[in-house]
Amino acid sequence: MKEVIMGWLQRSRALISLAVLALLWSACVPSGPAREANPAAGQPESASSGGAPKVLTLTIPREPDTWNTDLTLVTRGGGASTVQYIGHNKLVVQNDDLTYVAELAVEQLSFERGTWRLNPDGTMETLWKLRPNVRWHDGALFTADDLLFNFGVIKDPEIPNVIGAPARLMQAATAPDPYSFLIHWAAPYVDADQAPGLTVMPRHLLEDAYRTDKASFVNHPWMTTQFVGLGPYRLVRWHSGISMEFARHDGYFKGRPPLDTVIVRFIAD
Q1: Do 78 and 10 fall within a single domain?
Q2: Do 101 and 170 fall within a single domain?
Q3: Would you say 186 and 169 are in contact if contact means Cβ atoms under 8 Å apart?
Q4: CATH number of the domain within which 115 lies
């Protein structure tokens, strides 16, 4: 069972740094004042058939600051940034041998297949092909429109970001179809296959807030307590300073996750 669980949760080698990993077979969340529960998450889905609910409890020394680390300078130590792999997925993910492989993308960028092109004028193009039928935790489809929205946000001078060179080099983006996302670069960028600056955000949930109140956008509740992602588990509760609780996302595109609940507790040294 442990091997199955870790196969789902180890989206990145960084997850190995989680301070304490223990399997518990009854749900237990400390009492205390909770931040507003995610309204899109609803109630936890039914327990796995054939016995008691399957619950994984992780312990990390640092509470996360945000779900989108492209927009906010955060402290990445203490396991805080690894929580995102429980609730969210990316275009590509770093595997155990430190190479980046496709996740929400159908395949990695490739010069041979023409999805990574260097042009005679010194510019560059990257074409991401997206998996179809990937759904957000609220049931909406993930498409290239989400990436176009994401691109507009990181290119907006009114919205702070911590992306650096990639954000400056990416000039424009288009969506040739709902599952293709084309980026035009001003110059070559060697790490373009790591999808820098493309932490995916749901356009259908965030566009209105972005258009009407850019000054507060990086503090939108989606960035924390009202997060709706694409990962195997969905946020249902965030007890400030204590824990986060996730429930299985039965509509996950890689198949039904094996656990009913994942609890992440914050215990400082």
Answers
A1: yes
A2: yes
A3: yes
A4: 3.90.76.10
Single-letter amino acid, residue 227: F
Does some domain include residue 211? Answer: no
The structure's pTM equals 0.81
One domain, residues 111 and 199: yes
> Could you give the maximum distance between any two Cα atoms of the chain, in Å?
63
Residues 254, 245, 150, 197, Cα dihedral to 10°: -90
Query: pLDDT per residue over 145-196, tens digit each?
Result: 999 999 999 999 999 999 999 999 999 999 999 999 999 999 999 999 999 9
Beta strands 92-94 and 55-60 are: unpaired
Those residues with Cβ within 8 angstroms of residue 120's Cβ, 6 or more apart along the chain or in another chain:
none
Domain for residue 81, yes or no?
yes
- Strand pairing category for 55-60 and 261-266: parallel
Give the residue from 153, 181, 204 where a domain finishes. Answer: 204
* 209 domain-assigned: no
| Beta strand residue intervals within the chain, DSSP E | 20-24, 55-60, 92-94, 100-102, 116-118, 124-129, 170-177, 180-185, 233-239, 243-248, 261-266
Q: Read off the tokens for 144.
A: 């290239």
Cα(96)–Cα(40) distance, integer angstroms: 33
